[in-house]
Amino acid sequence: MTAIKHALQRDIFTPNDERLLSIVNVCKAGKKKKNCFLCATVTTERPVQVKVVKVKKSDKGDFYKRQMAWELRDLTEVDARDANKDNPEFDLHFEKVYRWVASSTAEKNSFISCIWKLNQRYLRKKLEFVNVSPQLLEESVPSGESQSVAGGDEDVLDDYQELNTREEQDIESMMEVCEYAISNAEGFAEKLSRELQVLDGANIQSIMASEKQVNLLMQLLDHALSEVDNIEGKLLSYEEMLQSVKEQMDQISQSNRLIQISKTNNDKLLDEIQFLVNYMDLSKGHIKALQEGDLSSPKGIEACINASEALSQCMNVALKPGHDKLLAVKQQQRLFTELKDTFARRLTNHLNNVFVYQFNHFSHFKMTIPQFYRSSCLSLPGHDQSNTLAQHTADLTLPKHSPLHRDLLRYAKLMEWLKNTQRDKYEGLSRTYVDYMTRLYEREIKDFFEVAKIKMAGSSKDVKGKFGLHGSSGKLTGSTSSLNKLAVTSSNSKRSQSSSLLDMGNMSASDLDVADRTRFDKIFEQVLSELEPLCLAEQDFISKFFKLQQHSTPAQGENVDDADGIVHSRPPSEHRISISEKDMVRLMMNKIFQSIEMELNSLIALGDKVDSFNSLYMLVKISHHVLTAENVDPASYLSTTLGNVLVTVKRNFDKCISGQIRQMEEVKISKKSKVGILQFVTGFEEFAKLAEAIFRNAERRGDLDKAYIKLIRAVFNNVEKVANESQKTPRDVVMMENFHHIFSTLSSLKISCLETERKDAKQKYTEHLQSYVINSLGQPLEKLNHFFEGVEARVAQGVREEEVSYQLAFNKQELRKVIKEYPGKEVKKGLDNLYKKVDKHLCDEENLLQVVWHSMQDEFIRQYKHFEGLINRCYPGSGITMEFTIQDMLEYFSSIAQSH
Amino acid sequence: MAANKNKNQSSLVLHKVIMVGSGGVGKSALTLQFMYDEFVEDYEPTKADSYRKKVVLDGEEVQIDILDTAGQEDYAAIRDNYFRSGEGFLLVFSITESESFSATSDFREQILRVKAEEDKVPLLVVGNKSDLEDRRQVSADEARAKADEWSVQYVETSAKTRANVDKVFFDLMREVRAKKMSETKEKNGKKSGNKKKSLKERCVLL
């Protein structure tokens, strides 16, 4: 632009004495590419004229033509069209409105600004600036203002140029060169003008030369411009090419996307197909196994298990919503269902057959034995003892079903499959199983209990014999003892030789009692220990085979794992399942073993009938088994059944106790013989010994303790009752002897709950010993006793001891008379009689004669001394003494001792 | 069924043992220890008491009758009667009390007097309270010398620790049994109907 400005100044304005101040490249509004310039000029001569000149660049050649010029005076309005926006358009209002478009907003702005300034400086006339940014107008105001203040001297100031030092020096040197300058100013001036002319010429020449250069430059520029045009054209063509390439690329990418979509679709389809093929395809082998696989060989079962698992897997595949609409899937599913049905039917049939076969097999096997038992049972009554004995040695066992279970457990997986797929078939099978097993077990258990009963009956027969013995039916006694002899010969042979027949019978009977009981205990224990594994095995088998407890275990495990309650909301449902499944097991067990409880009860009843003491054994055994069973599994069928049975046994036990108590109450003693130790006292001793042995480590101690207390109370009461009723034997003796025995029993058994009773017994024994001694001793010196009792009564009434002798009934004569009645001989006879009587009263078992006699001797001496003391006090100085001395008395005692 | 038991007991062979000795030497303690496996610390003078127990003596079931007697009686003659009834005697003294040891001689003399018709009376000298070694007054040698003199066995026991308690009873029973057997043989061999026989018979009948 500056270059253009220079060119314009040089070419156009300098010749007209004008100065170019501002230039703007414009074109007429509405026309294109009409390149021209608007120039603001001032004349160099005064008065200054301000003009706006329009210069046009000629199309051809490189020069400018002055087209039109306006006086600034004529300008009325400048319209910038828009003050704020960049808008190169502007209007100038002269005689008419000229519309321009500047090549740039900046140019426009500087041009407008220049016009404003020129107006300010030279014209100061009202000129409208419309839509011109105020910034543009104000910017230069201050300078304009100052310039205006300077006034008209401005041009003078402009012209005067102060010489700077260098110019000064130049001038000075120049003047020195022309020494004559000062002297010859004229010559110097001439010289200077000459030189100036030379310089002017040179200047003009150089200007001329530079014009050529400029022209050359302009040419070059033109050339460059055309080159640029050329390049522009090329670029345009390139762009076109690129455009087409881009279009092609677009097309390619479009098709690519389509290919992608179809590929993913294909992939998905493939996946689906693969999924269906993978999961819904059942191998030929499996199909074959399901359709006709051998269900009896382990290999076949294995194959079937695998096949059934594969089948369930296939059937349980989680199909997506649309899958079931696929024909192939439908077909496959139909095939599976068919396979499932066929296989389930086959499996059910086969298992049914297995059940039947096993059942028949077992029952056949079992049938052979019971027949033997039955025959022996029939021949039992009495005649064939060897058979009975053989019977006793026969094994009391229940057949084990482990082979059956083992066989069937191979099908467990298949059962699980069946349970999960064909519930009704599964339930049908379990019903069938239960039916068969019920029959099988019922028979086995019946036989088993029959054997057990026969064994028990073997002992019961003896016991009955023994009962007969007690009932004093002499007929049976003999046979019993002989039978007993058989049973216990080995242990008793020595004694039976040395004892009388009767003794031996008694003894062996009681020994047999113990032997019977231990045998009963053994039988019962065996029954229980046979039943226990049987039940457990069956329950285990059922839960395994019918898959009835599988769920409960993980559920429980879960409960244990998440104890913090997070899972608590969930387990209940699972728990319910497990409970119902346990119920299922229990139901099946109930059905299968329905006969057990009945049989057990009847066995218990028999045991109880045979010997009520057996209840003790049964109570302990059952309790123990209940506890063990509960430890194994508290909900098991066995523990519930045993629990029920336990109630019965406990009832029997209580019955046994109350039976004993009743026996005590009903006891009758003979009026002729001495009482001795009462049957029920020794009975209690025996019971307690037995019970202690049985309950030694048992869990039911509490029951026994309660029974003890009941029994001992009955014993105490009945001893007293008998003592009161006793005629032949004095009451004191009955009490003394029996309580001594009870005390001794309790001391040796050390039953802790009966400690107070033990002390009681001792107390009663001592009391009655004392009262017996005193009562008995009243007799040998009866009158003396009466006399002195009277004396004491008087003293007690307040009569002074020394004055007793003045009483008529108790004077010295009376005393002498009484004493005379008891000479030594009489006393000795009395003591003799007393000893005999005591001997007669007392029984041998308690061996209390020596104890009693010892007490009597003591008491007698005490009485003697007491009498002597009374005589000394009440009849002092009378010189009356007893007819016998203590020494005499001791001699009597010695002689009594020697005579027995 | 309980009825036969008492008869059963009496049918066993019965050995009658008498505890003899001064007061407080531990006769009752020995008896109770033997009978009930218990030791009673408190001392309560006994008048007399009788005990019976079934024991197995060398494989044979027998019964033992123990008569526990009073140690402190005013009159020795009172004892005559039960000495008479005894078949064997445990002559007990306390090793912590020399008086009780010297008293044994008197007791023995009385026993021999009462059972004068017997050739030999089964008897054991028992030095009780052997657990109280620090209070011992009677040396084992001294006691043994006396026992040797009487040609009987001397055993030291402790009713408290149960040391030798069973031994003295069983040893005594063995002696009693041996004596009875020799008498039976004698009786069967030559029917010498003297007092011994009647006594023997009475025992068996009981």
Automatic annotation (TrEMBL), chain A:
One of its GO terms (biological process) is Golgi to plasma membrane transport. The lineage of its organism: Eukaryota, Metazoa, Chordata, Craniata, Vertebrata. Residues 228-255 form a coiled coil. It holds the Pfam family Sec3_CC. Component of the exocyst complex involved in the docking of exocytic vesicles with fusion sites on the plasma membrane. GO terms for cellular component: exocyst; Flemming body; perinuclear region of cytoplasm; plasma membrane. InterPro entries: Sec3-PIP2_bind, Sec3_C, Sec3_CC. It is found in: Cell membrane; Cytoplasm, Perinuclear region; Midbody, Midbody ring. Belongs to the SEC3 family. The keyword Transport applies. Gene3D superfamilies: 2.30.29.90. Its main location: membrane. Keywords: Cell membrane, Coiled coil, Cytoplasm, Exocytosis, Membrane, Phosphoprotein, Protein transport, Transport. GO terms for molecular function: phosphatidylinositol-4,5-bisphosphate binding. The keyword Phosphoprotein applies. Residues 31-122 form the Exocyst complex component Sec3 PIP2-binding N-terminal domain. This is Exocyst complex component 1. The exocyst complex is composed of EXOC1, EXOC2, EXOC3, EXOC4, EXOC5, EXOC6, EXOC7 and EXOC8. Interacts with EEF1A1. Interacts with SLC6A9; interaction increases the transporter capacity of SLC6A9 probably by promoting its insertion into the cell membrane.
Automatic annotation (TrEMBL), chain B:
One of its GO terms (biological process) is signal transduction. It is found in: Cell membrane; Midbody. Gene3D superfamilies: P-loop containing nucleotide triphosphate hydrolases. One of its GO terms (cellular component) is plasma membrane. Residues 190-199 have a biased composition (Basic residues). Residues 181-206 are annotated as: Disordered. InterPro entries: P-loop_NTPase, Small_GTP-bd, Small_GTPase, Small_GTPase_Ras-type. SMART domains: RAB (SM00175), RAN (SM00176), RAS (SM00173), RHO (SM00174). GO terms for molecular function: G protein activity; GTP binding. It is a lipid-anchor. Keywords: Cell membrane, GTP-binding, Hydrolase, Lipoprotein, Membrane, Methylation, Nucleotide-binding, Prenylation. Its main location: membrane. The keyword Cell membrane applies. Pfam families: Ras. Its EC number is 3.6.5.2. The keyword Membrane applies. Belongs to the small GTPase superfamily. Ras family. This is small monomeric GTPase. It comes from Triplophysa tibetana.
